Amino acid sequence: MQFFSFWRSLASFRVRIALNIKGLSPEVISVDLMKGEQRNDAYRKVNPQMLLPALVTDEGAVLFQSMAIMEYLDDVHPHPNLLPSEAVARARVRGLSGIVASDAHPLIVPRVRDYLERDLKIDEPVRLRWIHHWLGEGMKAFETNLATSKETGIHCQGDNVTMADICLVSHAVGCNFFKYDLAPFPTVRRIVETCMKEDAFAKAHPLKQPGAPAAV
Hints:
This protein is about 50% helix and about 5% strand.
């Protein structure tokens, strides 16, 4: 397998966690988003959308979008599973994951920030307000669901790690990158702290990847 990734990509971070949980070690190919390497012809041939991550399977299939990649990994390497077997629990995990992967995170990615700066001429303080707004909307939705659901346990869904935990941790790290305060979200903080004690999460952290700075 080949895994196209970049240290700062939060979507790549999600897949790194899943790969670690599954005990998989693909060849990692860095695509530097800050240098615009995702727009180079070589990577366009891998993923025409020019987004990270991408995973090329041993059979040569090219997979893209973090949620789809994680579900693929769960299908072909089902132990330990990232989605519960029971239908309602699976739907809840997908719903929680979507708060981040489908709603909040897409609004703060580099291409959106670049568009706000380059095309709309929005200055940095206002762009940061935009970022904090959408980070906060995601965290408020997550905290409310976790704090009010009897399905919440040690982790987002019961006591086992699921894709919901992976997405939550990636969002929390994004909040840290942009200095968004997580103090108002005690359930979120508890679960994130629990997850980060596990090697699969800790070793996948963006700042522990090749090429990453000591701090953001």
